[in-house]
Input
Amino acid sequence: MGVPNRDLPPVADAYDLAACGLMTTLGNGTVVRVNATFCQWVGYEPSELVELRRLQDFLTIGGKVFQQTHWAPLLQLQRSVAEVKLDVKRRDETLIPMLINASRRVYRDEIFDDFSFVVVKDRHAYERELLLARKNAELALEAKRDAQQALLLADRRKDEFLATLAHELRNPLGPMRMVLDLLQLKEFSDPQVGWSHDVLNRQLGHLSHLVDDLLEVSRINEGKIELRKTRVELATLMRTAVETSQTIVNAASHELTVEYPSTPVFLNADPTRLSQIFSNLLINAAKYTPRGGTLRFTGKQDQGDAIISVQDSGIGISRDDLPKLFQTFSQLVEGKELSQGGLGIGLSLVRTLVGLHGGTVTARSAGVGLGSEFTVRLPVLIDSGSAARSESIPPAAKGKPRRVLVVDDNDDAAASLAMLLEMEGHATQVGESGVRAMQLLGEFNPDTVILDIGLPGMNGYDVARNIRKMQSKEKLLLIALTGWGQEQDKNEARLAGFDFHFTKPLDVQRLLRALNGGESAAHL
Amino acid sequence: MAVRIRNNVQVFGDGPVTMVFAHGFGCDQTMWRYLAPRFQDRYQTVLFDLVGSGRSDLSAYDYGKYGSLHGYATDVLEIVDEVTSTPVIYVGHSVSAMIGMLAALEAPGKFAANVMVGPSPSFINDGDYVGGFSRTDIDGLLETLESNYLGWSSTMAPAIMGAPDQPELSDELTNSFCRTNPDIAKHFARVTFLADHRAELTRVTTPTLILQSNEDLLAPLVVGEYMHRKIPQSVLSIVENVGHCPHLSAPSASIDATEAFLQGLAL
Output
């Protein structure tokens, strides 16, 4: 095939001394021809291989298995195999990585396989590097996953801590609120005492609000929030929100204009949460508006939506800050001075609660110093057929005096509740533990027992169960008072034999109604 | 239908009895090219790919489920239910012979016969038992697989190609039928070569043919003899063949042995 008159080395040399190893075998691998290059690479004389050795003799065990499971079937069915990389064993048992191609043909009814071998040390080293890099990448990925896991765990611990913190903070607030309410009924001759009471009242209200927000956020984080949706009228909710935020609005000498819907607008919503949403927005507006500003709180219906908006003449929001507004723990730098601290959870809570009600909340501001407007849209309850149904709860009527045993390991909580009940004309006795309660049952002979659940030793459920076992106490009114208001807590209370289950902070009016027989046990 | 897609089930032929062919480690149902067509005028023949191999649904590869051969046996039972309601003749190569055995132990009523091509209940030597390999050998194999799948993983282009000058090869064949996702291949290799089902052999009740090459690295003669001793009423048939795939390199002898065995069972 060369140029006719050029003197070329013999073709046999081209085969024998080729730059690659060449070999021909029978179908079973027996070597029938092999070139010098291959022999030199593996350290054998051709005469030691031809008719004496098989190709597979040069392979490692792994290579032999691979030959059986992959290469042989391919050679059989496709008649050729390309780019198989295997280690080839030399005479001294050392290995050289080689790339092998093969093709099969039939010559005079006999199967022959032709192989070529190329030494690929560099490629082999390179592939090792790649494999190593891949392994390292996998390890790094794993480390990243572990770190993420650890972060999640830390985040969960933080949530748990916040939940505990909120609960623990709320416990002392109950008795404080009760005592302040009691003081409200007294006349003070010293104006300074009166003023001091007002300060405490305002600050306690503020503190309670912060703690409630914190508690709500941790409930959301733990996925434990349960909406108690009922049919409610928007104006009622707006009124409650105004009451809640009134002290803060007044303290800053703002002028608040409230526009209620022109016709009643009904929502299917959790009244407590919605009031919380509106009062959060009102309090925010009051906080971020310099003294003597104007606030506007409006509610109206726009087709299927109720639209509630809170407008202020305050510090406004820059365009850059608008998107960050609803993130947890975010507070705008400009607002820091005016806000007097705060937790930075108010708006994030608003957005979550509105979302849970199937609504949206948006913020608008013409810019820094130009005031802001927050708008909540909520779906309106279409069925208004039973609009006549009474929304207002009748005030507690005075009933017959009861003998009430109050059991709480928080002395202040127990004493203040007892004091309040006595002012309502009931006889009371206070116990600090389950064991003491059982004792007083005989001594004091109460007709009503108000039990804290988290008592040391024998808890409230145990006490209730024990009381229900006593035949003489079947008619006794049992009321649970607890910080835990989940459905399962209520179930447990029901099973333990409680007639009522109240969640802290205590709604005193409802408790009084329960004592007077005016509250249905459906609240359990 | 989901099973058919998951395992790329292909049904051919017609007959009162169904034959199910299961390929071994390495390639796919193409391996039955010389064997299965010879049965399809008398039987309904069913070919499929193990999940993770060939054109099976790779997304169905669950490392937990396929962490033992029982996961594959569950699939086999589902395939049998999908194609017939009468007992099948199961033909399994290598690891699939053991998969078929596990499936038949679980539901003996679904199997009329089990033809095991080059089976091994355990590849690793253990005391008196000769499986043919040491643990180190198996590690070496896994490494060989790793270096040969390197090129395949990123491009998914066939690294081992067909010969264009072979007119009988269809397009389907030029796509390498031995190509697999390298992670799956490595896992499957580990599960295959570390499996040990010697203990179940004596519990077999399905009539069994052990079709053995006289020279096979993966299933040495002693392994075939061991299985023949342990499986009650089994038939050992030795085919003149070098290699692990007598159904490819000695198809006629393999067909003859299978037919003789099935005739004996009046199937």
About this structure: The radius of gyration of chain A is 42 Å.
